[in-house]
Amino acid sequence: MKNRIRKPFVWLIVDDDEDERLLIRKAVKASSQQRKFEVDLLFLNDGLELLEYLSSSSNGNSANLRPDLISLDLKKPRSDGGEVLKEIKSNKDFRDIPVVVFTATERTSVIEEGYRSGANTVIQKPADFARLTSVLQLIVNYWGCLARSPKGFGCAGIS
What we know:
- By secondary structure, this protein is α/β, with parallel strands linked by helices.
- The chain has one domain (9-157): Rossmann fold (3-Layer(aba) Sandwich).
- The protein has helices spanning 18-30, 47-58, 81-90, 108-117, 129-146, and strands at residues 9-14, 39-44, 69-72, 75-76, 79-80, 99-103, 121-124.
- The strands form two sheets. Strands 2-1-3-6-7 form a five-stranded parallel β-sheet, sandwiched between helices. A two-stranded antiparallel sheet has the order 4-5.
- Helix 4 (108-117) links the parallel strand 6 (99-103) and strand 7 (121-124).
- Helix 2 (47-58) runs parallel beside helix 3 and helix 3 packs parallel to helix 4.
- The longest helix has 18 residues, at 129-146.
- It starts with 8 loop residues before the first strand and ends in a 13-residue tail after the last helix.
C-alpha cells in the first residue's frame, strides 16, 4: 500500500520571541526533507492566547486547527505557563493533546514544575542551531510519527 498524507502535523508553539520563532521555522524546514509528512507551525505569544485559540477551535472555528502538539515555556509574560498547562490538562477536550515544555534552564525545580503541571516531556532549549534542528527533528518524528494518539494515527495520518 502506498503511503499518503491525510493531514499535516499541526504544532502550536507558544513563544513571543520573534528571533526564536525564526530559528524554529528554519530548523523545522531544514529537517523537512527527511520527513514523509507536512508540519504546520502555528505560533502564539502567550498562554492566554493559547487558551483562547483552543477554546475557539473546540467551538467549531474551522480557522483554528486543533493542534497535534503544543510547546510552551513555563515562564512567559502575561501568563503562568504552569497554570496554563494545568488548565489544558484539566479540560476534557484538550487533555489528550501532548504538551512539550521548552525551558532555557537546567533547574530541577522548573523541570519538576513542568511534569507536575501535566507536561508530557520537558526539554532544555539547545543554544546552537545544529542542536536545535536535531532536537526539533526528534520531537516532530516522535510526536508526529511514533507516538499514537486517541484522535488519530501516528505518522500524522500516513497509512
